[in-house]
């Protein structure tokens, strides 16, 4: 149990720990941004005027996309070189599903239940205060629950989670990436051809947005988000930049720096950063052509240079900060933090901000709110990680080879028998979670009571009970204990 709990607080020498630090910084910026936007009705007028300009902090999302693309492609491309495509794709899909699905579907179940009970209370005539006027919108959002469940919410503005668009984009990339890499690797045999293809892809994205600027009706920032920034078919630049970094980093960091001198790198990076700073004050109405056509390209390339600076060792001083133990832990929890931060930030705002006197809410209050929101989100994410996510992560680690980013090779994790029992016990409890979720769905009237819904409820209860009874009788152990012992390699006692 001790190893299971405290493993996340240890640095893994086979991982690029500085990237966790970058993710931690990104998490804080996202939380600070959403703290501001969600509290804007309760801020003094002088703090509400730069709402659209602060949206330029969205560069952090492109930084996340670049890092995710780099990490995923580095592993999958190596596996593709060792195994048949079908096997490599199957392993990749299993690994990604075990990592992202449990927490995401738990969040969807929670949100659907909360919204359903709220709508039910509204229909019953209960006074919901300021939420009453928002009932029609909430009902409309609830009707699109499936967009989040299918990871296509980036194409539906009325989604149940305002921040789930990025999760949809990443999942769509995960689904398309293996086929693209298969063609990319076997058709482009040398590095020059591959870099040329990726550069062409970046230009293609630019040309597509150039075309849409003249042929799509994009008259304001919200339409820009819906039609350009959120859909992956107009915003795939960052993922291509991540693949480009994989090509560059096939060499050692020292070799990269010898080919691309630090002075040249810093010059290019600060030119890009200077352009970003100079455009930060621009709003959509001031520069619609820049927003539609060039903004995503700038974000992607700048994020790529920043990531290269971290992984190739150009940012030595920054890297020492990013490798800080606390930042690494927050970075490891970044997925869970991102999922829950909207709820947590709202609750923290209620405690810190004064909703009766707007003038008392200033920069300091927003800063304090964002810090407490990050800390609280980290605690919630840690609990989610240990109870809900890590059992599935352990299945992934024990049954699938893991990629060593530093040594650029695969390795397998041996199973600690005591840790196996902890994981199996948690999985046994989690196997009853679908029953509880369906039960709540019926109570909130999200699911109509019928013979089919009652049958689904009974099935969710009977399957884990019967499976464990069979396993106890046949093997004298719980089902997940037996399954894990059969499908993993135990370490020597």
UniProtKB/TrEMBL annotation:
Classification via Pfam families: Acyl_transf_3 (PF01757)
Domain Acyltransferase: from-to ranges: 19-380
Single GO term (MF): acyltransferase activity, transferring groups other than amino-acyl groups
InterPro entries recorded: Acyl_transf_3_dom (IPR002656), O2_lipid_transport_reg (IPR052728)
Segments traversing the membrane: 20-43, 63-81, 102-126, 172-188, 195-216, 228-248, 260-277, 289-315, 327-346, 366-388, 420-438, 450-470
Keyword Phosphoprotein assigned: no
Keywords for this protein: Acyltransferase, Membrane, Transferase, Transmembrane, Transmembrane helix
Domain of life, source organism: Bacteria
Protein name per its UniProtKB record: Acyltransferase
Annotated organism of origin: Leptospira ryugenii
